Amino acid sequence: MSGVSAELDMAARRLRPYALGAGLRLLPLLAFAAGWSAAAGAADSLYDVAKISVDITAENAVAARATGMAEAETRAVRIVLQRLLPSGVDADLPGLTKEDIEGLVNGVSIRKEQNSTTRYVATLDVSVNEQAIKQLLQDYSLPYSEERAQPISILPLMIAAGAVTSEGTEGWRQAWDDLDLSHSVTPATILRPRPDLEPDTIKAVLAGDPQALAAMQGEYGYGLLVIAVGEAAGGAFVTRLAGTDAVGAIAFEQSDKMGGDPKAAQRAAAAIAFGIIENRWKTTEAGGAPATEANYEQGTEAAPDAGQSGPPKGEVPRNVMAQVEFSGLKDWQDIRGRLMKLAGIQGLEVNSLSARAASITFDYAGSLGRLQQELDQNGFAFDEREGIFVLRSR
After folding, report:
1. Which of the given ranges, 41-50, 91-100, 153-162, 305-314, has the highest pLDDT on average?
2. Per-residue pLDDT for 38 more than 80?
3. What domains sit in the chain, N to C, each tagged with a CATH number?
């Protein structure tokens, strides 16, 4: 039965982009059923991504819809990787093809969609395969964390003409509602302001008044509360965050030009503001780990332990950091595998990874000359460039 199920699943995936025409009448019901099922199974999983908006124009309706689905899947995979990976590690891993992305995705459900003969506009939810993502991260030797912050409440507010409102003329609250807050590493719930909320109270919270914040927290349930204040002034949109999140007190302010699309500017401002909350948690969570990076200049000696003499001059420090250059995924996997088998190299760790380079650290007790000789004999070029060791295949 497992083989039959796999074949049915593959058939369904192939047919998914072509469910057009008369079949569209069934989409709202199917989308509701799929959404309900996903919510019942894992309503706030880190491996689900909700509310992905796509707007694709192509030569025909079938191509537009297929491209929109593929774009949503790619963005969902990157969002999940960004949630799991520590700050500073690029979530845009090299060499992932369309087929790779499809293998990392369980399925797509539709919140809403519209299409013409050449255009596809939709809001989609994507379920990413947890085990496949973890295997991918293991293949890249990348550390990841599923630790999540304590849930918070966010109260979006607009200040206009001395009054406090929830929405504003350009949809500030809607900008926050459009974000996927429940599946984040910092899960959040959007609140509505009480009708008696005074501008002076908001100004006091923005100024860092703990009593004003405590009073607001009491009114909204005594939980962690962040107010997200938006204000349009002088052709710019100013965003301010104040209150307390899972890390502690937060105070953030940013001004962005409104441009020709005020709603788009506010959507971008809300996304940036919530990204600040997410990064605060990830940075704080990673702060307890011991630092593995150490910068060494050529010719310097390792610092000796107390009561011991240091290694002779010219010895490579035990903890070596190098920049690895490669042409793509296969090249990187080949280099990493060969390095891990090389005698004398231990504890190899990947600190950061981008499309064509990786920062690594490893332990090596020996001289620089001996390390260069061993790497050369195993098909590597290893030299120094502007104070940084650079390693690549020859």
Report:
1. 153-162
2. no
3. 2-139 (no CATH), 152-286 (3.90.950), 315-393 (3.30.70)
Average pLDDT over residues 270-290: 79
Tokens of 59: 């030569």
Question: Which one-letter amino acid corresponds to residue 147?
Answer: E
List pLDDT tens digits, range 117-169.
999 999 999 999 999 999 998 888 788 899 999 999 999 998 777 677 777 66
Q: Which of 242, 244, 253, 334 is nearest to 281 (CA)?
A: 244
Amino acid at 237: F
- Return all residues near 7 (Cβ < 8 A) that are at least 6 apart: none
SS3 sequence, the chain? CHHHHHHHHHHHHHHHHHCCHHHHHHHHHHHHHHHHHHHHHHCCCCCEEEEEEEEEECCCHHHHHHHHHHHHHHHHHHHHHHHHCCCCCCCCCCCCCHHHHHHCEEEEEEEEEEECCCEEEEEEEEEECHHHHHHHHHHCCCCCCCCCCCCEEEEEEEEECCEEECCCCCCHHHHHHCCCCCCCCCCEEECCCCCCCCHHHHHHHHCCCHHHHHHHHHHCCCCCEEEEEEEEECCEEEEEEEEECCCCEEEEEEEEECCCCHHHHHHHHHHHHHHHHHHHHHHHHHCCCCCCCCCCCCCCCCCCCCCCCCCCCCEECCEEEEEEECCCHHHHHHHHHHHHHCCCCEEEEEEEECCCEEEEEEECCEEHHHHHHHHHHCCEEEEEECCEEEEEEC
